[in-house]
Every structure is written in C-alpha cells, then in structure tokens.
Automatic annotation (TrEMBL):
TM spans (from-to): 6-31, 43-62, 93-112, 124-146
This protein's UniProt keywords: Membrane, Transmembrane, Transmembrane helix
Protein name: Uncharacterized protein
Organism of this sequence: Candidatus Kaiserbacteria bacterium RIFOXYD1_FULL_42_15
Length: 151
C-alpha cells in the first residue's frame, strides 16, 4: 500500500471516529437539563464536517485501492460475508449520515429558544441525534469487521 492510500485510510478512520465522538457529544448535550444551543449546533457542524471528510477520503481510497486490492482478498478469503454484508450495508447507511447530521445542525441553529421550550421538538431532535449516533457506531463496527475480514 502506498503512502497516499495509507494516509487516506487513516484520514477516513480518524475523521469518521471524530464524527462519532461529536455525534455522541450532541446527544449527550441535548439530554442535559440546561442546553447551550450554539454549542450543540457547533458540535453537530463538526460531526457533519468530519463525516464529509471521512466520506471523501474513504471514497477515494475505495475507488483507487480497496476495490482492486482489498475487496478481492476479502471475497476470496475465509470471510467473504465481511464485504458482502457489512461493506455494502456500511456504504448505504453512511450515505445517510452526513445529510441527517446537516439537518440536525441546521435545526439546532435555527430553532432558537423553541427547542428549549417545546418538549416535542426537543424529543424529536434527541431522537434524530440518537439515531445518527447509533448509525455512526454501526458503521464504525462494520469497518472493524471488514478490516478483520481483510486479514
């Protein structure tokens, strides 16, 4: 593996993990009794940016290296399901994450104090944040399984 591909893979992993951490932070901050809306919105934007960076780095890595070198090794190895099930699922779930995270960030930015006073809106935003965090964790665990299938 060349230095470029290794760098893209590391960037993909680290930025994805950063997105998971910020998504968890958003959820955690929303569950607090007193919320600071702009802090939460800023965290959501950081999660969004992290997911976009991970998306671009991972897409480049996949199209230039994984598809030609790693995928054939996994699909012809002892654990072909690692790619067939988890990579395919990961690809489709991850497409949803940046957009859901952007919707969450925009909602947090433009709702003003309504999110503090409207319990239905707050519950909906918490649910969206929990869903994003859960999906991000599933995508991360899928990546770990895929990496194990490549070994």
């Amino acid at each position: 593996m060349s230095t470029l591909f290794a760098t893209l893979l590391i960037l993909h992993i680290l930025s994805g993990l950063t997105g998971v951490i910020y998504s968890f932070r958003v959820t955690f901050l929303l569950l607090k009794k007193e919320i600071v809306q702009m802090t939460i919105a800023r965290s959501a934007y950081f999660a969004f940016a992290s997911y976009i960076i991970s998306w671009v780095a991972g897409g480049w890595y996949y199209s230039k290296y994984y598809g030609n070198s790693v995928k054939p090794a996994i699909t012809s190895g002892d654990f072909p399901w690692a790619h067939i099930v988890f990579m395919e699922s990961k690809e489709h779930i991850f497409l949803f994450l940046p957009f859901a995270t952007l919707a969450l960030a925009l909602t947090l930015s433009f709702t003003g104090d309504v999110i503090i006073t409207n319990s239905r809106l707050k519950r909906a935003v918490i649910f969206l944040s929990l869903a994003i965090t859960a999906l991000a964790i599933i995508v991360t665990l899928s990546g770990i399984l895929i990496s194990g299938g490549a070994r």
